[in-house]
Design brief:
The complex is a heterodimer of chains A (about 120) and B (about 210). Chain A has about 120 residues and is mainly α. Chain A is built from 3 helices and no strands. Chain B starts with 7 loop residues before the first helix and ends with a helix. Classes of the chains: A mainly alpha (about 120), B mainly alpha (about 210).
């Protein structure tokens, strides 16, 4: 497991999500694919956090400074923020999908080209 | 133990979690039944949570399980059942090959960048001065905003717990301190975003019901 391997998994997840967003008609599946893309990005952030070269941890010699630990864990703070934004996005997106369904009796994104009544 | 040396069992766990995450993700975008797609989505989230645990990010792994597996999956399954468009409703657009080509190109370029960038040269900054320079402070002194003598974790504790196992010690506490100190503004803004999104979701639903 190297940084490159983790980034490979992250890129594959992102690409699968992108394919789903571009190719699916059902708006709910588009939102699911969007979540897959978010997950790929978070995996990349956590991987960079894991492989940040912190003085003291890289060679196992220690001591780990507070600044070094802060620097390394900033990637995980980014992950927390991305997860929070994704949670807000999926709540809003599913509300829009349900509103669309009530309005048109369909959740196909190809039929939702207009927002007017 | 070097931070970047990973044991064989950890590598095996990493590839197992990756296989679960990617395999379930492929099923999400290919399976016909939308409800089954939402179940595979939950499995993909579990695989990604396993990846976080392997990457020694326990807090993010727990958050992943709580937020994604617990809340988002249920919300998606709820929406799937509400729109009553379950079986055979997951058709693709007219030309899925175009989408496949675009996704493959984006993925290939990302993988190319991941493998072509010489991260090893970045490893050269692994000395205290360079890290302190990136962090904006020097190791010997405190950050400008911090009261004198304050530190998040004691260097001795981090040494005893972290360096021996080659992983970080007490990540959750440091993440919490980072959230309410260094990233306080972003933390408040994300709270506003979540509140606004939920109120907006309620408003959208209610408007359609009254008209």
């Amino acid at each position: 497991m190297t940084l490159e391997n983790v980034l490979l998994v992250s890129a594959v997840l992102f690409a699968i999500g992108l394919y789903g967003v571009l190719s699916r008609r059902n708006a709910v599946t588009v939102l699911m694919s969007l979540e897959l893309m978010f997950n790929g990005v978070v995996v990349a952030a956590v991987a960079f956090s894991r492989f940040t070269p912190v003085a003291g941890l890289v060679d196992g010699a220690g001591p780990v400074t507070t600044q070094g630990l802060r620097l390394a864990l900033t990637g995980q703070v980014f992950a927390v923020f991305i997860i929070a934004v994704a949670a807000a996005e999926v709540a809003l997106g599913l509300a829009l999908v349900l509103a669309l369904f009530r309005h048109r009796q369909s959740v196909e994104v190809t039929e939702a080209a207009t927002m007017r009544n | 133990m070097n931070l970047f040396e990973v044991s064989g069992s950890t590598t095996a766990a990493f590839w197992a979690a990756s296989a679960l995450a990617i395999g379930a993700a492929v099923m999400v975008v290919t399976v016909k039944n939308v409800f089954r797609a939402s179940i595979f989505l939950a499995f993909s989230f579990i695989g990604v949570a396993g990846l976080y645990f392997v990457l020694s990010a326990e807090f993010i792994g727990i958050v992943q399980i709580l937020v994604y597996v617990g809340a988002v999956s249920v919300l998606v399954a709820f929406a799937v059942m509400l729109v009553r468009d379950v079986s055979g409703g997951n058709r693709s657009i007219g030309k899925p090959v175009v989408a496949l080509v675009i996704a493959a190109l984006v993925g290939a370029s990302l993988i190319f960048v991941a493998y072509e960038t010489s991260w090893q040269r970045i490893d050269d900054i692994a000395n205290a001065d360079a890290v302190a320079g990136l962090a904006g402070t020097y190791v010997g002194s405190d950050a400008p905003g911090l009261p004198s003598g304050e530190s998040i974790v004691s260097a001795a504790g981090a040494d005893a717990l972290g360096a021996q196992r080659g992983v970080f010690a007490d990540t959750t506490g440091v993440i919490g301190t980072l959230l309410i100190k260094d990233f306080l503004l972003a933390f408040e803004i994300i709270g506003m975003v979540l509140t606004a999104a939920l109120i907006g979701a309620l408003a959208i639903m209610r408007e359609r019901r009254t008209t």
